[in-house]
Here is the input.
Amino acid sequence: MKRVAAFDLGSNSFLCLVAEMREAQVFPIDDMVEIVQLGQGVDKTGELHIEALLRARSCLEKFKDRANQSGATEFQAVATSAVRDAQNIEKFVKILDELKIKLKVLSGAEEAEMSFVGATVGRDSLGIGLVDVGGGSTELYFNDHDGRSFSESLNIGGVRLLERHLINDPPSENEIDALRKDIQGNLLGIQNPEIDGLLAVGGTPTTLACVYQHIEFDETKVEGFFLEKDMISKMIETFVNLSVEQRKGIVGLDPKRAATLPVGAILLEEILNQFGFDGYEVTTKGVRHGLAKEMLCES
Here is the structure.
């Protein structure tokens, strides 16, 4: 039976899903995640930082070894915002070539669609919207009850907005105000979707679900969790009044997300404000599931 390794190389996190097809569904064999912060400094310099490239190689070597051990025979990666924007992309491509992992750099629209396909694996996708908050960009994908869809890729994400706005630790009120205005400006003009609800994809919503429940990551308690707007607002209030070091002690929060989580939470809150929804259904699925499905359906 064909078994594949699908790599989602984001601006903040790298993920890898080893999967096969069972009963016409993507069946996970192994699932890996590591915070790499590939997008470090890209918003300011336009280039991938040497330290980020070294972290990327180390992570990919570990993922590839583990995928091999899990029986994967095909290895394919997609890269997103940080790589899209980088002028020195050839340095990243060289790493993937040396590790014999195929690479495709997704456009924002392709990323949004692949995330939606992955997040809705095994469920009805009509009348659903998706918000995928990444490190460098945020993808929106809306699919109405008639199957008409449209997407938006916004060049704002947790790492990018953190580096752009939050200098003080904890951040000042003026910095938070500027951050919110930046997000609101990027959301202006996006049509209100004719959908029933929103799925939230990515490390920000899954971490918020853990923090609210005071648990370490447990897929059975995160998948399908309804993250209400009021929950997000209360957590934001806590986060912005703590230093990065203090946030590292919060149960359910990976210390590597301590700096970016308040930014991602504010981004999720502003999207709810824009479209008038009262929360998100959290899913642990995403781009890697969409890529795995594509790989497994190839003849």
